[in-house]
Amino acid sequence: MDQFTEHDHKFMQLAFKLAKNAQLKGEVPIGAVVVDAEGKVIGKSGNKREQLNTVLGHAELVALHRACKSKNSWRLIDCTLYVTLEPCYMCAGALVQSRIKRVVFATHDPKAGAMGSLEDLSKHAKLNHRFTAENGLMQHECSTLLKNFFKQKRSEKKST
Questions:
Q1: From the CA atom positions of the chain, what is the Rg in Å?
Q2: 27 assigned to active site
Q3: Which of 39, 38, 29 lies closest to 59 in space, CA to CA?
Q4: Which among 135, 59, 61 has a CA at the least distance from the CA of 104?
């Protein structure tokens, strides 16, 4: 049985679309969507590190920033983040600070993931906020998109 709702599928599909759009702009294909308690998208983005020339251009951070602006508050207490790749430490830290309620991510990041791969900041006992983190929704599609992107990048690097 699928643990994810129809809404979960809809919002992860949107995150996947944002990831593919980011790839078309030369970005690592990661997409993120923040949804409020009423099911309204209040922040979304693909990766923008290359476009904005900043380490803060992670899809999650841009989507969180937009969500905070939309709510006119830094607290995202009843919100859910959908993201195509497990958040890194920087993004997981921002999620803790935002007081997010739930995170749904597609696939693990064994080299940088901070929600189970290297550590799990969503449940860290010493942090002041904990949230639900679920994974596996659209795992195959998101993982394949990322693997193909990096395979192409390696191929391009070899030919230069």
A1: 15
A2: no
A3: 29
A4: 135
